[in-house]
Sequence to fold (205 residues):
Amino acid sequence: MKRSPGASRGLVRLMQAGLVVILAAGVALGNVSVIVNATLSLAVTALPALLERDHGVTLDPVIVVWITVAVLLHSAGMIGLYDRVWWWDHLTHTLSGGLVAIAGYAVTSAIDEHAPDVTLPPAFLWVFVFLFTVAVGVCWELLEMIGRELARAMDVEPILIVYSVEDTMLDLVFNVVGATIVAAMARLSGGRAVLERLGDSLARQ
Fold:
């Protein structure tokens, strides 16, 4: 896959404009959850450029676009798509799970490459990536539940919405779906090349 930093920057800026629109909608509606989520999402999309400018850390364009798509879809979900489109939550968790899996792949690849006394068999690599994705997903769901209870205690609107235990379990399932898609990519020559490039990009930072 050919890198296209200019195209990716333009795409990221377009999606950032979408986040600004969502933020404006949240302000117009007086919806604190939308405002906070859109603001945090904008901050996340600005991090790659800040890391490159201030610290010389350059993330692969595919990673930057993937991050931006994930937070844009999440923020869009907060303005009603989570409630109106049954599969929207599944899509956002699949994207997030895939992103976490790539991060886990980068970590294990870096350990395997740079630690002379450590050799990680491919089977262990993907078991670790799977468990890493599940663990991050569980931590996120716990954070959502804690946030909801704190919001209830303070009698304010929760920033992160928890619908039910069944919804939480489905979120974890689709996190794993994202990790599985990444693992499937690793089984294909083209997909494996992309993952190795993305892993190297993250591991070098």
Q: What stands out?
A: The two ends are 21 Å apart (CA to CA). Residues 3 and 74 are 26 Å apart (CA to CA).
